[in-house]
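Sequence design from tokenized structure. All designs in this work follow the same two-part layout: the structure record, then the generated sequence. An example of the structure record is given first.
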């Protein structure tokens, strides 16, 4: 286990990040917010949605395997029921950094996915949002982090 601040710094130190669960219909959907923020901050970001050819005006990918050149990290923004499948795909592809997004409510966090990832040598951040931390942070997300919304773990 490592302190979450270290895990966050390592995660956000990557440049090619996929975001699963990016919606075709809502730019205010949690995964869409993360996708857009990472993109605005200069990351090379890949939206993953098996039911869309395009999301937020960008080409969408059916799965992580479809991203040419691979990715360094993955934000899971789907329901918890799909998180373990995504973590297994990450393990198969050698992706070692995963963040299960969580705002108010359960978010994308799955205990089974967390266990599987950690058992396979992955750093799994199981809660919170990348937008709570520099260089992707904004005031609203900083306040949510301060108030404990998103259930950010202390160690991962």
């Amino acid at each position: 286990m490592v302190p979450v601040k270290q895990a966050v710094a390592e995660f956000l130190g990557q440049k090619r990040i996929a975001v699963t669960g990016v919606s075709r219909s809502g730019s205010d959907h949690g995964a869409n917010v993360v996708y857009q923020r990472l993109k605005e901050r200069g990351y090379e970001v890949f939206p993953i949605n098996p039911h869309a050819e395009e999301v937020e005006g960008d080409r969408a990918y059916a799965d992580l395997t479809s991203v040419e050149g691979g990715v360094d990290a993955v934000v899971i923004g789907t329901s918890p029921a799909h998180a373990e499948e995504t973590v297994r795909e990450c393990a198969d592809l050698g992706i070692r950094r995963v963040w299960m997004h969580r705002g108010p409510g359960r978010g994308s966090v799955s205990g089974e996915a967390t266990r599987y990832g950690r058992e396979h040598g992955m750093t799994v951040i199981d809660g919170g949002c990348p937008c709570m931390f520099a260089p992707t942070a904004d005031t609203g997300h900083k306040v949510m982090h301060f108030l404990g919304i998103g259930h950010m773990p202390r160690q991962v």
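The first strand starts at residue 16 and ends at 20. We note this feature because it recurs in several other targets discussed in the main text.
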